[in-house]
Design goal:
The chain is α/β, with parallel strands linked by helices. The chain has one domain: TIM Barrel (Alpha-Beta Barrel). 46% of the residues lie in helices and 13% in strands. α1 packs parallel to α2. The protein is globular, with a radius of gyration of 18 Å.
Length: 295
């Protein structure tokens, strides 16, 4: 395996909005808070950042703002994934010019493709050579589940350096890791299985949870990296109620609601997403209060 892009916790950071556009001052403040809380990397314009409702100019503004605010303190991974291979390549080229260290590239959705198409899609992006690729499998959103054999084939390309696995299927994950034979890094894309994934040899998490609880998420991944399994298990179990609350509604609806409770942004999403229901908001508030994240 080449040197991994990061080990530990990478936050898939939300994008703060105003009623008329981007809230870049709030985004900069979030970046500072995340880094001060100990995260190892940040993902700009991942799913949690709502890139599907941004223009290309807004996407570029968010990626550049996160890179500038981080100021080299942690690596920045740009979300480039999409279902148009040519557009993904264009975004990757721009992200490299802006200073991103890698790209997070979700499997194509809606038009989807075959396993052979996935190999062709990712190979075309990799051959362009713009940025190292972290593959991203999230079948619950895309309707497409990467097969372990497909991941293994792609792992032989030097530009493909990681895999974010968000199916929470530990059997599938174990088969992926076995077949890849250590060629790429594996990261959890599901906060509820950070510990088990890292116990199999994963290097960390690309997290929604760490948007609202960065220190606790970092403590969990650090415990696993230090092979303190007892402490990691304790933290994973303590965080489960909050993790469940953060997925009561479509991500990033709860994450933004939680951050608004903390006074870090306005609770504004773009349609078709809407703000969290009062019933679920109360559950989230209760779990955040129990952990001392809000009073």
């Amino acid at each position: 395996m080449s040197k991994p892009v990061f080990k530990g916790t990478a936050t898939a950071i939300v994008t703060p909005f105003t009623s008329t556009g981007l809230d870049l001052p709030a985004l900069k403040a979030l970046v500072d808070w995340q880094i001060e809380s100990g995260v190892s990397a940040l993902v700009a314009c991942g799913t949690t950042g709502e890139p599907s409702t941004m223009t290309d100019a807004e996407w570029e503004s968010v990626v550049s703002t996160v890179i500038e605010a981080a100021d080299g303190r942690v690596p920045i991974i740009a979300g480039t994934g999409g279902n148009n291979t040519r557009h993904v390549i264009q975004l990757a080229r721009r992200a490299k010019k802006l200073g991103a260290m890698a790209q997070l590239c979700v499997t194509p959705y809606y038009n989807k493709t075959t396993p052979q198409g996935l190999v062709a899609h990712y190979t075309a992006i990799a051959e362009d050579g713009s940025l190292p690729i972290i593959l991203y499998n999230v079948p619950g959103r895309t309707g497409l589940n990467m097969q372990p054999e497909t991941v293994a084939e792609l792992s032989s390309h030097p530009q493909i350096v990681g895999m974010k696995e968000a199916s929470a299927d530990m059997i599938r994950l174990a088969d992926m890791m076995r077949l890849c034979e250590g060629r790429i890094a594996f990261y959890s894309g599901s906060d509820e299985v950070i510990m088990p994934l890292m116990a199999l040899g994963g290097l960390g998490v690309i997290s929604v949870l760490s948007n609202v609880a960065p220190k606790a998420t970092v403590a969990l991944t650090n415990a696993m990296l230090a092979e303190d399994f007892k402490q990691a298990a304790k933290l994973q179990l303590q965080l489960m109620p909050l993790i469940h609350a953060l997925f009561l509604e479509v991500n990033p609806i709860p994450a933004k609601a939680g951050l608004a409770m903390m006074g870090k942004l306005e609770d504004i999403l773009r349609l078709p997403l809407v703000s969290m229901s009062d019933k679920n908001r109360a559950i989230l508030r209760n779990e955040m209060s129990k952990l001392g994240l809000i009073s």
